[in-house]
Amino acid sequence: MAAADDLEKYRAPALDKGLDILELLAMADTGLSQAEIAKALDRTPNEIYRMLDRLVRRGYVMRTPSDRYEVTLKLFELAHARPPLQRLIAQAMPVMRRFARKAQQASHLAIYDRGALVVAAQVDGPGYWNVSIRIGSRISLVETGSGHVTLAFATRDERRLMLEEQDPPERLTPALEERLARVRQQGFENMPSKQVTGVSNLSVPILGPMGRVLAVFTCPYSERLDTKDAPDRETVLKMVIAHAEEISQSRSGGL
User: Fold this and answer.
1) Of 49, 72, 95, which residue sits at a domain end?
2) What whole-number distance in Å separates Cα of residue 191 and Cα of residue 117?
3) Which of 4, 49, 207, 236 is deepest in the core (most CB within 10 A)?
């Protein structure tokens, strides 16, 4: 009885209402209208309106063109925020440095963040030159190998949300859908860079224990002309796959 009294004493009705909405939308297969949410929670539409407005403005819920509401990936992002990310980077960096020495190429680790990929870690190749991307750079989902891998291994709903979060929003064209299907089937992307001539994006997912993409390991491969013993592109691709699998195995506990 005392426990029940304590629960009642420390109630926060507005917070409860917001959490009820998030939990309801998270379990729904499709978006729900304001009236449907109100009915499911046994509340009036007016009670729900202001809370929905705040959740939309804060990015936890999105309103679709058909005037329905869906939960976004923001809670997903918060649940896998900084400390786990730091652990992932700490475990990946030794593997990335070893890859750089063997492949004689640079590499980086990219993580999805609100409509783009963010470069979270980067290692230069061992020579005095390489093709690299600065840590913190935001890169395209549609125009990069890392983006293709991220989209290919996302669920249909996640992919749609990711594309809608582009600025401007992107659509899943038949050509892109076919490309993503091939990436998922083969387990990697191998494509010419759309930013730099002569560079190939070799990208492989870092997977968690449930098959979810935690990050993407990418080598912006460029042919070395200053040495005869540098691995060729196909050999480097095999190295990218092997080193990404090693990082994935080190993440057996999940992100």
Assistant:
1) 72
2) 17
3) 236
Looking at the fold, whether 148 and 133 belong to one and the same domain comes out as yes
DSSP 153-210: TS-HHHHHHHHHTSSS-----HHHHHHHHHHHHHTSEEEE-SSSTTEEEEEEEEE-TT
CATH value at residue 23: 1.10.10.10
Find the angle CA(196)-CA(200)-CA(205) to the nearest 5 degrees: 120
Model confidence over 3-36: pLDDT tens digits?
A: 445 546 667 888 899 999 999 998 888 889 999 9
Specify the pTM.
Answer: 0.66
Average pLDDT by stretches of 10, the chain with 255 residues: 53 87 89 93 91 93 91 75 77 95 95 88 86 88 95 90 84 92 96 92 90 92 84 96 92 50
For residues 67 and 82, membership in a common domain is answered with no
Q: Are residues 108 and 222 in the same domain?
A: yes
Residue 21 shares a structural domain with residue 130: no
DSSP 32: B
Strands 61-63 and 213-222: unpaired
Residue whose structure tokens are 């900084």? 82
Residues recorded for the chain:
255
